[in-house]
Specification:
With 560 residues, this protein is α+β, with helices and mostly antiparallel strands. Helix content is 25%, strand content 28%.
Length: 560
């Protein structure tokens, strides 16, 4: 039996023992994943080979980052990959496989490309071993959920240089809502897991979910920590294990020494839903209307972000998120955006109390909508993979999705992996998610008001889909209302679900015309008050022969 080692009072597993199939070491790893969603790992470093090579790579990368911003800007890509720069950090993001770099980024200088090629092959081999170890664990083999998540053939290699222009606060924040408080807000990633192999100073913190406190990650500049890495799980691991494995919540805080830059390197095992939209050549000029709040579900305890006045392009919004919250575009999945329309500005967060109850319905749906979507003003969007984060407010007047995405990236430092809008088989999908605690009649009337607002909103004028201008087009509404009823206390509590599904149709008017009235069935007298409300709105052509009751709904609904 192998002896258990530790770092910062948490288990430190040994990579070499995992490679040899040491059952005790594998159990240590599984226990940490079940408790926290992350684990410290001693990386293979025979004769100091890893340390020496990382020192060489660090020298090359540091020299590149030390160049003038004008010179570095020549290497910036128009997509999510290659060199990028926001106010508090800069970085390089590339896709890799077992053969090294893939050609999705603007090529960098020769010395950097060579360093990246070595890194790509080395870290891919490490993560591939860990992936094989994970998939042999009973929690995966006994609970196969392969149909829920499809992994990408590409891994994502991230290199980030944090400037640390601000000193660390005397007392670390409990959460860290934006880049005024932290380099990167608390969040979990969309992929299977990430392996961090280099951190040149303090900053990375992992959330201990049992004790509700932050644990410092390794500082690889310290001699006794030079080969300690970190594995943190993403949302995909939680889905595949039916939440036996937790999503590893992590953040990056400021250094104790101002202007002490922090260079860090990690690779993520990604999902296809996360990567494919980033390498798509389709236009992503999604517009989010004002009067919209965006809450990032993957940012725990975060506050909503409001879309700017006049609306905002999704890319601009995500740039804002990265600046304000330190979260880059590649670390957010489409279902991590929760758009909240603010019909009452004083009630921006009216659905926050019930977010946890409907998150399970949201998590599995990573589909996209048409990429010209306009988010309505006054709404808020929650980032699901940013635990405890505040929702984003959509700007007054609405904004495009691209502007919104840029704002997210600028303000939270977290990038998004995919756009929210897409045309699927000629059908335009539009989503509106709300959780309302009230009686049934009020709920249904509120939904009807929302639907009328959708018909009168700029969405129809912003899209190029002809079906919206077709007099035969219809708005098909499916309402799914659920309530969880717990009749016991403790782990043995039995949870049951009461569900009501109703479908009705509203004709889409010609541009400028008023919407026709719709009849929504009223609840029967004495019916229970449903509290977890998820309504799905689908704009589709009446001649489309797709049926909501056939096929995989996950491919038809953009979100919930």
């Amino acid at each position: 039996m192998s002896s258990k080692q530790s770092f910062n009072n948490h288990t430190l597993v040994n990579f070499d023992k995992l490679l040899l199939g040491d059952s005790s070491e594998i159990n240590h790893l599984q226990n940490e994943f079940e408790s926290h969603g992350w684990c410290f790992i001693r990386l293979p470093n025979k004769h100091g080979e890893l340390t020496n090579k990382l020192n060489e790579i660090q020298t090359i990368l540091s020299a590149f980052f030390a160049r003038s911003q004008y010179e570095k800007s020549q290497y910036e890509s128009f997509n999510a990959f290659g060199y990028s720069h926001v106010g508090h950090k800069e970085g390089i993001k590339v896709l890799i496989d077992q053969n090294g770099l893939k050609n999705f980024h603007h090529r960098l200088s020769n010395d950097v490309e060579q360093a990246l090629q070595y890194l790509a092959i080395s870290i891919y081999n490490l993560t591939n071993v860990l992936k094989n170890v994970m998939f042999k664990m009973p929690v995966f083999t006994q609970n196969p959920n392969d149909n829920m998540v499809e992994l990408s053939p590409f891994g994502m290699l991230d290199i980030v240089n944090y400037f640390n222009k601000k000193p660390a606060p005397k007392k670390q924040p409990k959460v860290g809502l934006n880049t005024d408080e932290v380099n990167c807000v608390p969040h979990f990633d969309p992929g299977l897991f990430s392996l961090s192999i280099l951190s040149t100073c303090e900053g990375l913190q992992l959330h201990d979910q049992l004790q509700d406190k932050w644990i410092d990650g390794p500082n690889n500049s310290e001699l006794d920590q030079h080969s300690i890495g970190v594995i943190w799980l993403g949302e995909a691991a939680s889905i595949l294990t039916k939440n036996r494995f937790k999503s590893g919540i992590h953040r990056v805080v400021y250094s104790d020494v101002i202007h002490k830059s922090r260079l860090t390197i990690w690779q993520e095992i990604c999902t296809k839903a996360q990567i494919d939209p980033l390498i798509s050549k389709k236009d992503n000029s999604i517009f989010i209307p004002n009067n919209t709040n965006i809450r990032m579900i993957n940012q725990p305890n975060s506050v909503p972000l409001r879309i700017r006045s006049g609306g905002e392009n999704l890319n601009n919004f995500m740039r804002r998120v990265e600046n304000d919250r330190g979260l880059s575009i590649s670390k957010v999945a489409p279902h991590h955006f929760k758009m909240i329309s603010n019909s009452n500005d004083n009630n921006d967060d009216s659905d926050d109390d019930n977010d946890d109850s409907d998150d399970d319905n949201d998590d599995q749906y990573t589909q996209q909508q048409k990429n010209t979507n306009f988010l309505p003003g006054g709404a808020s969007v929650t980032m699901k993979n940013q635990p405890n984060s505040l929702p984003f407010q959509i700007q007054s007047g609405g904004e495009t999705m691209n502007n919104f995405i840029r704002r997210v990236e600028n303000e939270r430092g977290l990038s998004i992996t995919s756009t929210i809008d897409k045309i699927v088989n000629g059908v335009t999908h539009t989503r509106f998610v709300g959780t309302i605690s009230n009686n049934d009649e009020v709920v249904l009337m509120r939904i009807l008001q929302v639907l009328h607002s959708l018909l009168l909103s700029p969405i129809g004028s912003q899209t190029t889909n002809n079906s919206l201008r077709d007099e035969n087009a219809q708005l098909k509404i499916q309402l799914q209302v659920q309530k969880d009823v717990n009749n016991a206390i403790g782990p043995s509590a039995i949870s049951t679900s009461i569900a009501l599904s109703t479908t009705t149709t509203i004709a889409v008017p010609q541009p400028g015309a008023a919407p026709q009235s719709a009849i929504v069935p009223q609840p029967a007298a004495g019916r229970v008050s449903f509290q977890n409300i998820v309504h799905k709105v689908i704009l589709q052509n009446r001649h489309d022969d797709c049926d909501d009751n056939q096929g995989d709904n996950r491919g038809r609904f953009s979100s919930y």
